[in-house]
Amino acid sequence: MNLQFVCKKFDELSLIELYRILQIRNQVFYVEQRCDDLDLDDKDQQSYHLSIYDGEILCGYARLLPPGLAYSEMSIGRVAVDFSYRGRGIGKGLMNQAIENCYNLFGKGAIKISGQLYLQKFYESLGFEKISDVYLEAGIEHIKMIKND
Questions:
Q1: Residues 142 and 114 sit within 8 Å (Cβ to Cβ)
Q2: pLDDT at 28
Q3: CATH top-level class for 3-107?
């Protein structure tokens, strides 16, 4: 694998890049996980978009939200790894890069996420702590988690 990280503001994305991002989000959240909420929430335009490419193939993606957009803290969301790339450490690499990019873009501070419950241990391994009870989001059990710098 020849992995390359690319982080861009919304208005810097090419149409092809945007299409691939929406494609991976649709595949993971709507086809695989059968989410019942709309993906397009008017937060993309004010966010940064972190993509992992294996050559020309988009294999992972995360959305980086500045403080005040989703929460008072900065946030990482829409984390998605293409099915054929799972089990290779792509998700951990993606999240580590997302955390680093958040600090570089928005400064040091807390990062808050709405994580799927089944990924709690994964997020804890990255330094996130559970701060809420379980709740349903898009028909899937989630918990709020925070990583303090």
A1: yes
A2: 85
A3: alpha beta
Cα(65)–Cα(55) distance, integer angstroms: 26
Check pLDDT > 80 for residue 76: yes
The whole-angstrom separation of Cα 27 and Cα 34 is 9
**Strand segments (E) across 26-123:** 48-54, 57-65, 74-81, 111-116
What does the domain layout of the chain look like in residue ranges?
3-107
Pairing of strands 111-116, 74-81: parallel
| Furthest-apart CA atoms within the chain: distance in Å | 40
pLDDT value for 38: 66
Cβ burial of 50 (10 Å; 0-12, 13-18, 19+) is: buried
